[in-house]
Amino acid sequence: MAAGALAGLKVLDLSRVLAGPWASQLLGDLGAEVIKVEKPGVEGKGGDDTRGWGPPWLADGDGAPTTDAAYFLCTNRNKRSLTVDMTRPEGQAILRQLAARSDVVLENFKVGGLKAYGLDYASLAALNPKLVYCSITGFGQDGPYAARAGYDFLIQGMGGLMSITGRADGEEGAGPQKVGVALTDILTGLYAGNAILAALLHREKAGQGQHIDLALLDVQVACLANQAMNYLVSGKAPRRMGNGHPNIVPYQDFPTADGDMILAIGNDGQFARFCEIAGHGEWATDPRFATNAGRVRHRADLLPLLRRATVMKTTAEWISLLENAAVPCGPINDLAGVFADPQVMHRGLRLDLPHAAGGTAPQVGNPIRLSATPVAYDRAPPRLGQDTEAVLRELGRGATEIAALRAAGVV
What is the pTM of this model? Predict the structure, then answer.
């Protein structure tokens, strides 16, 4: 296979939990060498906090549970695990040596948290002026909230996402809801990956690195997308609409004879074809419903009519009829249905990588498809400290010194 697109890039990952590790996993998938720095400790009592965020737990080759939670597995493949106590001078020396030969450093400590250890941007850039140093925090490096800790759930609330997620006021079960995954963390990881690549390209042109300041709150506000624009253009704050869409109708879930389906009708031609298949061609010429703008204005009149029609066929029947007419529709799958879906299976989104504990570690594939430099899955998520000795030897540390560092609890 061709070398990955980022082959030769060296990443020192001081981050933990999700946003930073998501970014470094992306870089690792694309071919970068990623060294994940973790707190020393025995299995189950050390390392990235997410190792203990279970159950469920990864099983070893004999089917017994390990101390690595499924949460940790989702964001730490294609990395080497190095355990170092960065509060100790000896540990700081190891990390500075690694930073001096790295292209990228990722960290998500509180603002100023690494300065006491000589691992902040200014200290490491003095050693390595070409270093790209990415800091991920809840609120950024400046501003009135800069010193606060930031967590995905908190940011979903503060950043407006929960104000537009959940059932509409007045409906049973109404109230703000968070998204079912830590989406702000994941989006921040993706922005971090883009920012790092942009900084690396600048380095190629200008010969110098730079500091990247990424805040979860900034990312969440930026990703409000059309909802933010709806507010800024109209001055009216969008409200929760359940599965409805503020700008498109019909674009939500509908009941069927045996469950539910999603209609995602994006233009008037699709709506007209749906109406014919539903046996109500008159809806497409009704002045209230003929255009999307009219359907948005008169959604309260249209939606009950649609629901009375959709319950007359099963989900599978609707999908068959509507797909043949190029009307976007689909089922609402649980995760068992997702990974059994023929398209998901064809695209290879379920992986199983050999794991150091024996057996395999399940993974979800990277969605990036590069024709010349495809993603490679070289390493399952590592055991705690799995690569400590190898990394230290690469730094020129001998067996006696490594043994002494272990005995002192530095690594």
Answer: 0.93
